[in-house]
Design goal:
Radius of gyration: 40 Å
Mean pLDDT: 90
Helix content: 25-40%
CATH class of one domain: Mainly Alpha
Number of helices: 8
Shape: flat
Low-confidence stretches: 1-16
CATH superfamily of one domain: Helix Hairpins
Structural class: alpha+beta
CATH architecture of one domain: Orthogonal Bundle
CATH topology of one domain: Helix Hairpins
Largest sheet: 4 strands, antiparallel
Length: 715
């Protein structure tokens, strides 16, 4: 036995073959299925109702049968189709995605994987090996401007520049210190590892959200520090007898600005002006409502007139039909009587001596009687219809009378509302004019006039109260020390890796009007469009609207009252989510390409969207219908914003056009100066300033009132 035993052990392999190694679906099977099967059988293009993106979905099958039966490869329809032993051969010949037949080796592997139970590969967290972005990436994919209009942010690649608009100066480039510690970056000024796709300032302007791959960072602006003073050889400031201040160039004495107001007064005027514009918008809307109500009332009056006319015709017709019945009844009785008399005579004629003339007369009498019966029936039916017409017209008159009454009351109510909003508009205008008068009398005698160390601020120290400051570029009031404000990273949303709650790129950001919630739009391209809501106080995820769109979400905007969230995506749709229920309450369809921007009008009644189909669409939220489709662009309309509380929309596009239009599609003006593809758009809360970022890295600023370019911030 000691000699034989080793022989048995050495040759036992032919009796007990080693089990085949488990097949890794992700590494061995999915690659050839992705190229030749999943291209037509996925979430977006589900041919035959079959989705092959996961083993679970394959097992579920489609319209024909279960796709795969774990453990039974040869019996699985999907394998039979790929092996061309089923009714339909897959992939079909001449397909448009370039799919080819599986090779014998791939077929064998596919069958073996099913025989092994068609198991999915163990889930793995994808580890990204980050590298510095290539030098020279300058396109500005995202810009934002603080509601007060003092700061603007521009994203170039993974760098974010903060500009102080009143002084037209660069304040800083945001730096995430943890990225410097990785060793990938040697210089400050890097905010993210990947391209920055979205930016948004909080309503109070103290925070900036920046979106990149699977993460959003929140940066906090520090309170302005007391600026350091330094003598200026360039500027001279003198206070006049009326307390106004003249800022001049020291050499030559050129007047830069005649300052008559401070920041508080300017902001008060801006707020009152916004209120006045909003009131004017409401007056316009109520006038439109009156016209619509009057048109409806006129239509109901005309309809009532028509109904009364029909009622008179119906009454006349009923009388005519009623008169027609008596002769028909008499004719029927006479015809039946005549037919009976002839029939009685015919009955007395012997059977063997037929009277042909009498028989013919009998036949004619019967036909006449039958016709008389039919004529009477038709007359009776006509009478019944005439009676029904009387009832119908009576009901119509009742209904239209009620509708006319309601329509006329709607006109009365609309006119009453118009009077209310007119008074509100008059008050808003009066308040604005009153506060504007304080601009010339608002300044007090300054204890001293100084210049900041960086030469960008003129600062007036007061005997009592905080100092005041103005830009030395144009004399605009500013917050003292704002030109040297610092921004620090406060927190991050999402982890930036495979475990992140943010899917793929954070393409869009929006703060709720109260600043308590941050909405992030993302999604895996061609797979899902996700929206997540985050609590600003805690930084925690509060709501996840997974797969709210069928493709990546590119645009978000909260309604003015904060109750609704509009979103636009690569699935060509605009969706409205009711935040109280989390349900989609409306889907606006009509774009034929990606929706790149959405914006609510200040009154929340209209919503505008822009698309890669070179058009802008305006949707009426009050009726749920499309109000207008506006064209006139040669390339994608990349950005869209309603201006302040007015009925004007700012748009940016790839054809270098920055156009201002109305909700009805009329062009107000064009802002000239852009020389490259405009990638992004931002406006101030009041709508007095518009900014556009282009593919060459230029950030341009325009004054809306004059349509003039104020400044250009180059990369």
């Amino acid at each position: 036995m000691r000699i034989i035993l080793p022989f048995i052990i050495l040759n036992s392999s032919f009796v007990m073959a080693a089990a085949p190694a488990p097949i890794d679906y992700d590494k061995q099977v999915r690659p050839f299925l992705k190229d030749n099967c999943i291209a037509c059988h996925n979430k977006t293009t589900t041919k035959g109702g079959l989705n092959m993106e996961t083993p679970e979905l394959m097992a579920k099958g489609g319209e024909s049968d279960k796709g795969i039966i774990p453990g039974k490869g040869a019996e699985s329809v999907m394998y039979q189709a790929a092996a061309h032993t089923w009714d339909s051969e897959m992939p079909p010949k001449g397909n448009k995605v370039g799919a080819v037949n599986l090779t014998p080796e791939q077929l064998a592997l596919f069958k073996a994987w099913i025989d092994q139970g068609a198991k999915a590969s163990p889930k793995k967290v994808q580890i990204i090996a980050w590298e510095p972005l290539p030098a020279g990436l300058q396109s500005i994919y995202a810009i934002a401007v603080s509601p007060q209009g003092d700061f603007a942010a521009a994203a170039r690649a993974n760098q974010i520049s903060i500009y102080h608009l009143p002084t037209q100066s660069l304040v800083t480039k945001l730096t995430d210190e943890t990225l410097l510690k990785t060793g990938l970056y040697k210089q400050p000024g890097v905010a993210h590892r990947d391209l920055v796709q979205s930016l948004a300032f909080s309503p109070d302007g103290t925070r900036l959200a920046t979106g990149s791959f699977r993460e959003v960072k929140l940066w906090k602006r520090s309170a302005p520090a007391a600026p350091a003073f330094a003598p200026s050889a360039k500027f001279t400031a003198t206070q006049e007898a009326d307390n106004s201040i003249k800022l001049t160039e020291t050499t030559g004495g050129k007047l830069i600005a005649h300052i008559k107001s401070d920041l508080a007064a300017e902001q008060a005027v801006a707020q009152h002006n916004l209120t006045a514009v909003r009131a004017a918008l409401e007056v316009t809307y109520q006038n439109e409502a009156i016209k619509k109500a009057e048109t409806d009332a006129t239509e109901q009056t005309n309809r009532l007139k028509k109904a009364n006319e029909l009622a008179e015709l119906a009454k006349k017709a009923l009388e005519d039909k009623k008169k027609d019945i008596k002769p028909k009844e008499d004719a029927k009785v006479a015809a039946e009587k005549a037919a009976k008399e002839i029939a009685d005579q015919l009955a007395k004629v012997p059977q063997d001596k037929p009277d042909e003339a009498l028989k013919k007369k009998n036949t004619e009498a019967l036909e006449k009687a039958t016709k008389a019966v039919a004529d009477l029936k038709l007359a009776q039916e006509a009478f019944t219809r005439a009676e029904a017409a009387i009832t119908d017209t009576a009901n119509e008159i009742k209904l239209v009378t009620e509708n006319e009454k309601k329509a006329k009351q709607t006109v009365v109510d609309a006119k009453a509302r118009l009077e209310v909003v007119k008074k509100a508009a008059e008050k808003a205008n009066a308040d604005r004019d009153l506060i504007a008068k304080t601009l010339t009398t608002g300044l007090k005698k300054a204890k001293s006039l100084q210049f900041s160390a960086n030469g960008l601020e003129l600062i007036a120290e007061q005997d009592s109260g905080p100092p005041l400051a103005w830009s030395t570029v144009n004399g605009k009031p500013i917050a003292p020390g704002s030109t040297s404000a610092t921004w620090t990273l406060e927190r991050s949303f999402g982890t930036g890796d495979g475990k992140s709650q943010i899917t793929d790129r954070a393409n869009s950001l929006a703060f709720s009007p109260d600043g308590k919630t941050l909405a992030i739009g993302s999604g895996e391209p061609s797979r899902s469009g996700d929206i997540t809501l985050w609590d600003m106080a805690t930084g925690k995820l509060t709501t996840n609207y997974a797969e709210r769109h069928l493709d990546s979400v590119f645009a978000l905007d909260f309604s003015p009252d904060g109750k609704l969230l509009a979103s636009g995506g690569a699935d060509k749709a605009v969706r409205i989510t009711d935040l109280s229920t989390g349900k989609v309450v409306k889907v606006f369809e009509g774009h034929t390409h990606h929706v790149l921007g959405v914006s609510w009008r200040a009154d929340g009644r209209l919503l505008a969207s822009s698309g890669a189909d070179n058009v802008v669409k305006v949707w009426d939220w009050t009726t749920g219908d499309r109000r207008k489709s506006v064209d006139g662009w040669d390339k994608e309309v990349t950005g869209i914003h309603y201006l302040g509380a007015a009925d004007q929309i700012a748009t940016s596009a790839g054809d270098n056009k920055l156009r201002l239009i109305t909700s009805d599609g009329g062009e107000v003006k064009q802002l000239a100066g852009a020389t490259a593809f405009l990638q992004s758009l931002a406006t101030t809360k009041s709508g007095d300033v518009v900014l556009g970022g282009d593919q060459d890295g230029n950030l341009r600023e325009w004054d809306v009132a004059t349509a003039k370019e104020i400044a250009v911030f180059k990369p």
